Amino acid sequence: MFQLDTKSRRTIYQQVVDNVKELILSGVLKEEEQLPSVRELSKLLTVNPNTVLKAYRELEYEGYVYSTVGQGTFVQKRQKGKVDEELLFNGRQSLENGIKELLYAGLSEEDTLKEVNAVLEKFRKGTGSK
C-alpha cells in the first residue's frame, strides 16, 4: 500500500505525502476512510513518527485529509461541483512542471500532448497513474 524509495532524492516525508495522494486520487482510499494512525504507519514504514505526522499535517493543509482529535485522520470528502482553488493551483503547477520536463527530455509539443492524453486515458479507465 505504501512504498518508500530509500534511494530517491525526495524526502521520506514527501514520499509519504505523495503515496497518500496517489491512493486517494486513484480511489484506493475512499472519502471518509480512516488512514493508519501515525504510530501504525511509522512502524509499517520503519520511519520516525514525526515524519508521518509532518506528512499528515501537509496533507491536511492541502485539503486531502482531516483530523479528528482522539479519532484519527480521514480522507476529506470532496464537494462535487466545487473547485478547490488551492488544489487547482497546485495541480496546474505540477502539470506545468511535468510538461516542461517532457519538453526538456526532447519530446515535441505533439508527442507531449500525446503523453498527457495517455495519462488522462488511464484515469478514465480507473487505473490511475500506474
Low-pLDDT stretches are none
CATH fourth-tier homologous superfamily of the largest domain: Winged helix-like DNA-binding domain superfamily/Winged helix DNA-binding domain
CATH domain class name of the largest domain: Mainly Alpha
Helix/strand/pairing category: mainly alpha
Number of helices: 5
Identify the CATH architecture of the largest domain: Orthogonal Bundle
What's the overall geometry?
A: globular
The end-to-end span amounts to 13 Å
CATH topology of the largest domain: Arc Repressor Mutant, subunit A
Tally of separate domains: 2
**Overall pLDDT score:** 88
Strand line-up in the sheet with most strands:
1-2
Instruction: Give helix and strand order, one letter per element, not per position.
Output: HHHEEHH
Percent in helix: 55-70%
Biggest pleated sheet: 2 strands, antiparallel
Give the amount of beta strand, in percent: 5-15%
Care to count the β-strands? 2
Radius of gyration: 16 Å
